[in-house]
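Example 311.
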Amino acid sequence: MARHQHAVFADGTRAHHHIEFRVRPGIDRAAIAQALVEVRTASADQHLGGGTHLVIAFGHRLWSSLAPDRVPEGLRDFPGYDNPEAGHQIPSTQADLWLWVHGAGPDTVYDLASAATAALDGVAEITLDQPCFVYHDSRDLTGFIDGSANPDPDDAPTEALIPQGAPGAGGTYAMTFRFEHDLDAFGLLAVEDQEKVMGRTKPDSVALPADRRPADSHITRAEVADDAGEELVVYRRSVPFADATVQGLHFVSFGQDLDRFDRQLRAIYGLAEDGVVDRLLEFTRAKTGSYWLCPSVDDLDAVAPLPAGED
Ligand code: HEM
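Predicted structure in complex with protoporphyrin IX containing FE:
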């Protein structure tokens, strides 16, 4: 049975750091694989010492070059989405490698993020470098709890991992976006109107009853089903970022395939049959967008094995 990267599901961590890389031109597979061995070694040491977790994920191009026999059919680059009539778009800024470091506090997260970045120095350049934090009881900076509809922790691996027996088993697909918010505009709405934008109550995240939930509310748009009407479940781990001038959400979601992400994005961006646009887009704008494969530990071992005694 293929083992998954436990760090995808490690819960309760309050400090996060997302780093994306593009491999430098002319770097060969062996050099990247060696750098990844060093990244994994740093993580194995830190995990034992500091309870800090690392998820390693790949864009289509890099994973196809490192592990051509282990590429699940569905893996592809993020295409970007554009609804020019509504004035909403989500760009593709697809990179090669995404590291998600998370732990109890910013000190150990910094240690591991800087060790991993040092290991990749020379072979890859950083294209996104974003420390994030958990805000109160897992709230987005709009003040709404984010993650209420996630599967229970016991069920999350079954729901989000590529099933055993399928190509890429034990891995999971992911999608990430950097959303920058207009909190001033959102704050001008009365709380009752904010709740209509999200589709849930603000203090305790209770879904509004169907007759009070507008068709363009966020949860109405984001909840999608397959052609047989079966809900397509995802597991979200988004976290806010903020400084004095820019505030937003680093959106992170995992699932068994990329097609469910495509359905969600079409529904949110008004590209589904009903053409309805998610009202939340009036208050936030995506600046980056990527699809990823987080391979199983077995597939990582095949590409960048940990030295003996480090696992
Ligand atoms: C800045 C952007 C976003 C913010 C602030 C945001 C915030 C929220 C909040 C507050 C909820 C309700 C609580 C919960 O169930 O977690 C929610 C639900 C959800 N969001 Fe988002 N979200 C954002 C973008 C997205 C995007 C881009 C997607 C997918 C492409 C998405 C997918 C979902 C899903 C699947 C749910 C659960 C719906 C349900 O079944 O109730 N979100 N989001």
